[in-house]
Amino acid sequence: MIEKNRSFREATSPWATNIHHMVSGNVPTFLGAQPIKDPGTIRDFDVVVAGLPWEGTNTWGSYSGCEQTPKACRLASLRYGSGYLPEYDVEVMNSLIIGDLGDLPVHSTDVAKTFAAFEEAAARVFAAGVFPLFFGGDHAVTFPILKALSTQRPGRIGVLHFDAHFDNAGEYDGDSFARCCPLRRIAELPDMDPAKIVHIGIRGPRNAPSQMHYAREKGIPVYTMKDIHRLGLPVVLSAAQEIAANGTDGYYVTVCSDIMDQASNPGGPIDFGGLSSGDMCEALFTLGRGRILGLDLVEVYPRLDVREVSIHLLVWLAIYALAGLATRPRSGL
């Protein structure tokens, strides 16, 4: 278990006083965490939550609005108390000191300025040795996060990418920072070894042959859903961790909601044949107990969601990952 200043945790835990903190206006912090008003205090926390409310180029029809996800997840998190999971007997909010940094600044017409702000904030969190939990936003937000992390740990990080799609297109309609491009931009980073990036759950007809060719050309390992069905998810997770963690300081995890079947994810992209919600929760608990360096959860469209199912699912995924983090062996730190 992560252990810092127990008295600080007891003094700041909302569960000691049964109140919810507000990150801004009438928006609560995630799980009632302590709001971070002074970035200089980031080191006092085990986990920092941040929203990345970015919506870039729309790549299909009416599937937009994912910039609303961070707010929606914070509101949904009110349902889950202190984040207690009986199957693991761990209470997240009483095991970790969690702070909420709020949403990072967005300049809606300037992707470069927005991503520079995201990179700067992510760099501050990583430099403090604190675990970041990011809620997107479209999947492009992963690029500035990993740019910050790879700069601090050149050649020493792996990436586990859960997605139905490669997201390694060179550009989309002239936009090289569209949501279908971030893994290409990440693989191109000078401090990133493409062989340490692992695609997990790739499937379906919304991929192009050129994207598979790029992954093969760069030596990026790919586990399709067929591989998961054939080998079993635990085997694939173990193999992916071994690839991403071997010779590195650990791995960063990025999760697109469409890694899960549409039946579990009505507010995400329409992609069938994916993981179940239960499998993904268990996977993130397992990864949280390993050498995880950070996590982002992206690509849900609240306006299209049915009864907020996908939004609540993201909250569950975050809680399971944090529960893993809270219970991982000291050797996993």
Written description of the protein model:
- The chain has 11 helices and 13 strands.
- Residues 5-18 have low confidence and may be disordered.
- It is of the alpha/beta class.
- 34% of the residues lie in helices and 17% in strands.
- α7 (209-218) links the parallel β10 and β11.
How would you briefly describe this protein structure?
The protein contains eleven helices and 13 strands. By secondary structure, the protein is α/β, with parallel strands linked by helices.
Keywords:
13 strands; 333 residues; alpha/beta; globular
Mean pLDDT: 91
Q: Report, as a whole number of angstroms, the end-to-end distance.
A: 9 Å
* Proportion of strand residues: 15-25%
Derived structural class: alpha/beta
List the secondary-structure elements in sequence, H or E: HHEEEEHEEEHEHEHEHEHHEHEH
Oligomeric status: single chain
How many distinct helices? 11
* Main beta sheet: 9 strands, parallel
The helicity comes to 25-40%
Shape summary: globular
Low confidence ranges: 5-18
Radius of gyration: 18 Å
- Please provide the count of β strands: 13
The strand line-up of the biggest sheet is 3-7-4-8-13-12-9-10-11
